[in-house]
Design a protein that fits this description.
The protein is elongated, with a radius of gyration of 21 Å. The relative contact order is 0.17. Strand 5 and strand 6 form a beta hairpin. A six-stranded mixed beta sheet has the order 3-4-2-1-6-5. With 149 residues, the chain is α+β, with helices and mostly antiparallel strands.
């Protein structure tokens, strides 16, 4: 079973890479817009500038969202063990591993697939407060809780 500290390390790297990539794209967009001279006149030019501005706003929001993910992950104490499923829990269930943190999706850690989900995801809501030995039905499938850290 992958441990929380390994998962957190990979998760932090994933988020840092996302932030870096988005910041580079935002900087490139700003540079392109700055290099775009006013020598071209007309509606086509203004439409292009407006589209570039919208793209910059979108990228800026994505950077902020990624930074919020980073802050949320920083709140997780990998040494803390949980008796019931909550934010920061690593769960081994009959259908796989789930780390309840941020909604990044699938990560491969120590040759195991770990799904990083939020507690507000449908599965997070269904599993909140559950303990080892509990069984839930989710999307027509029975899921047994085998371990909670």
């Amino acid at each position: 079973m992958p441990d929380k500290s390994s998962i957190l390390n990979v998760l932090k790297l994933e988020i840092d890479e996302r932030i870096s990539s988005l910041e580079k794209a935002l900087e490139n967009s700003r540079m392109e817009m700055a290099n775009d001279t006013k020598s071209t006149a007309g509606d086509k030019h203004e439409t292009g500038r407006a589209m570039a501005q919208l793209e910059q706003e979108k990228l800026g929001k994505q950077v902020l969202a990624a930074r919020e993910l980073k802050q949320a992950v920083a709140q997780i104490d990998s040494s803390k063990s949980h008796s019931e499923i909550q934010f920061g829990s690593l769960v081994k269930a009959s259908n796989g591993y789930f780390f309840f943190s941020v909604g990044i999706g699938k990560l491969i850690i120590e040759n195991e697939t770990v799904f990083c989900l939020t507690m507000t995801s449908p599965l997070g809501i269904a599993l909140r407060g559950k303990k080892v030995g509990d069984v839930i039905e989710f999307n027509g499938q029975k899921i047994s809780i085998l371990n909670v850290e």
